[in-house]
Amino acid sequence: MSRKSYLWAGYTVLYIAALYAPVAFLVIFAFNDSTAIAFPLSGFTTRWFSVMANSPGLIDALVNSLKVSSSVAVISTVLGTVAAKALSRAALPGRPALLGMLTLPLLIPGIVMGIALLIVAGAIGLRLSLFTIAIAHVVYTTPFAILIMLPRFEGFDRNLEEASRDLGEGLFFTFIRVVLPLAAPGIVSSLLLTFTVSLDEFVLTFFLAGNETTLPLYIWSQLRFPGKLPGVLALSVCILCFSFFLVTLAEWVRRLGSPANPQ
Amino acid sequence: MTTPLVSIRNVSKVFGSFHATKNISFDIEAGEFFSLLGPSGCGKTTLLRMLGGFDMPTSGEIFIDGKPCAQLPPNRRPTNMVFQSYAIFPHLTVAENIAYGLRTMAMSREEKARVVEESLAMIQLGPLGHRKPHELSGGQRQRVALARALARKPRVLLLDEPLSALDKQLREDMQLELRELQRKVGITFVFVTHDQEEALALSDRIAILSKGEVMQIDTPARIYEQPASREVAAFIGSMNFFPGTLLGFDGVNAVVDAGRAGQIFVRHDPATAPNKGDAVVVAVRPEKIETGTEPASPAANRLSGTLVAKSYLGDRNHLFVRVDGIDKPVALSSRNAGRGAAEPESGSATISIFWTHENGILLPVA
After folding, report:
1. Is the ipTM of this complex over 0.90?
2. Staple partner for B20: which of A18, A145, B7, B46, CB 3.0–4.6 Å?
3. A10 touches chain B (CB under 8 A)
């Protein structure tokens, strides 16, 4: 290797280290046998995981999070699928503008969106609850669903739907027998990804939460107590692994059924 | 009198400002192999899609089996379609594809299984029923599309250039199979193609379309030998045109003054001829022109010119002869019946060309 490529390799290593070091520290301290988050490490332990599992409120927060995230995943995937189906029609007037408008919520800062939604909730007299959190999450995750579903629909031959009509099926059964099976990998992928995004969402949740708390809010609340920090780290490790697993699964399912690689 | 199976009445289709078909009317009889032939953009696919229910006519009516169908969706018509892309469902097996259209039919489970089995046997894919479409070759997929459409026993089978994606050898085999299949099942086929040889080889009748209008509907032989207009004559096969003025009749022959090329005699019925003095063209197929010293029959036109080009095509030669008074060199094709048959020399050799009076076609100039 030349001098120049050594430089590039070094830069790349540093870059990746900077990206992942904080996460690595989090994982390391979750297994460190001390309440102090500092070097030197005192020894290996898994007790923070049992401390975490026994902390009051954690299970409630987890159940709340699962309720919100699973409803959000289903609702935003349905909305995203329908929207993507419509957007995949090349003849749709104003298609580029529409696609832009529909996916813009991805780029609106969470804090702005949070305040906006809070104002709306107040204006229409909606009591803050898990319900308002879910609405906020749907607004945020639907663009993800659209962006996942759109290439699926654009990838398949329009003649397939015509062939189904030609073979005696109406619109509904054409959707059930042709469109849905072909879109299935995208739908699974969208469910998993929107679930993950909703599960980890903090800013919007913080604005729109009432008395009930979700997992990210619970973690935030625990940070006030230095003694609980290792337990929070343990919880974070769990969430990290779970999210990583879901996103990997979503990507795997998506590739499995992409039009270039039909099942 | 029997009513025609398909009756197209004054059908027009407008996309924005584009008139895909203009006031088209014709009938298709039961059991016919009927082709729609024309260059791309002539409206043939639009017409086929209107027969299938994928596009609705802007005006006009389509009767199938005497029933007005123009506004019915595809699932409520006695037609089935073989798509150019085949549109085989990629998530279903071959057998499931064939069975797809049977769900809505009043049949017992056993009957449906029997139809699928018979269809697989018909297309010679018996053992491959469990395969997924991507495991099939292009020709096999084409057959699956055909079997799937025929499984519903349609009154009319619509085929949208079904052979265009296949290579030449396979295409010729499939042409034969298609023709045989059509005779066997007795279903009316409406076949869209831009390949004139395919249309001539397969069809009972051909409709020639151009710019959304029907130019001629006739049997393949009549389309080729007796084109109704200069446009059809030029579109089908190759053709030599000798423009001139109709001088009158000499017995059974029309006499055309072709200027410096002299007088040309054409067998023609005086009753259907243009008026004396009208501008006309005499059309002659290249293979109907001979060359040599004397014509085989005395009732022949004779012109002389210079040989400007010759191309050797294996089974035949094409010669191009420049004749005084005719813009384009006259093309003639001669069969290479024997090896090393004597050929006229290329270059500026002067040669004589002949064709008999009945081999010319008199056409009006539009």
Report:
1. no
2. B46
3. no
Q: What length does chain B have?
A: 366
Closest B-chain CA to A259? B90
What per-residue confidence (pLDDT) applies to B199? Answer: 92
Smallest Cβ distance to A167: which of B84, B134, B152? B152
Residue B30: half-sphere exposure toward Cβ, Cα within 13 Å: 12
Kindly state whether A255 is in contact with chain B, defined as any CB-CB distance less than 8 angstroms. no
Nearest-5° Cα angle at B318, B314 to B320: 160
The pLDDT of residue A143 is 93
Does A183 contact chain B (CB < 8 Å)?
Answer: no
Q: Tell if the CB–CB gap between A168 and B105 is shorter than 8 Å.
A: yes
Quick one: average pLDDT of B144-165? 91
3-state secondary structure of A179: helix
- For residue B36, the one-letter residue type is L
Q: Are strands B18-28 and B290-292 parallel, antiparallel or unpaired?
A: unpaired
Closest alpha carbon within chain B to A182: B91
Residue type, B322: R
Computed over every residue of chain B, the mean pLDDT equals: 88
Closest chain B residue by Cα to residue A163? B87
Best of A157, A165, A166 to substitute, by most chain B Cβ atoms within 10 angstroms, is: A166
Q: Give SS3 for B120.
A: helix
| Whether B75 and A168 lie within 8 Å, measured CB to CB | yes
Q: Residue B183 pLDDT > 50, yes or no?
A: yes
Local mean pLDDT, 10-residue blocks, chain A (263 residues): 83 91 84 76 79 80 90 95 86 83 86 91 86 91 92 85 92 90 88 90 88 86 80 84 85 66 41
- Tell me if the bond preceding A105 is cis, omega within 30° of 0: no
> What structural domains does chain A harbor?
56-255 (1.10.3720.10)
Q: How close A73 gets to chain B, by Cα (Å)?
A: 25
pLDDT tens digits along B4-43 = 899 999 999 998 888 889 999 999 999 999 999 998 888 8
CA–CA distances in Å: residue A85 to residues A148, A154, B100 = 11, 8, 23
Contacts of A181 in chain B (CB under 8 A): 91
Find residue B37's DSSP bridge partners: B193, B208
- The tens digit of pLDDT for each residue in B293-322 reads 777 777 788 888 888 888 888 888 888 998
A261/B contact by beta carbon, under 8 A: no
Cross-chain CB nearest to A170 (options B75, B105, B152): B75
Which two three-digit tokens encode residue A75?
């609702």
pLDDT for the residue numbered B156: 94
- CB contact at 8 A, B9 and B60: yes
Min distance B81 CA to chain A CA atoms (Å): 7
Percent residues over pLDDT 70 in chain B: 97
| B192: confidence class by pLDDT, cuts 50, 70, 90 | very high
* A256 Cβ under 8 Å from any chain B Cβ: no
Contact B217, B27 (CB under 8 A): no
Q: How many CA atoms lie within 13 A of B347 on its CB side?
A: 4
How far A168 CA sits from the closest chain B CA (Å)?
Answer: 4
- CB of A166 within 8 Å of a chain B CB? The answer is yes
Element containing residue B300 per DSSP (H, E) = strand B300-312
At B306, list the tokens.
């210079």
Contact B156, B64 (CB under 8 A): yes
**pLDDT over threshold 70, residue B334:** yes
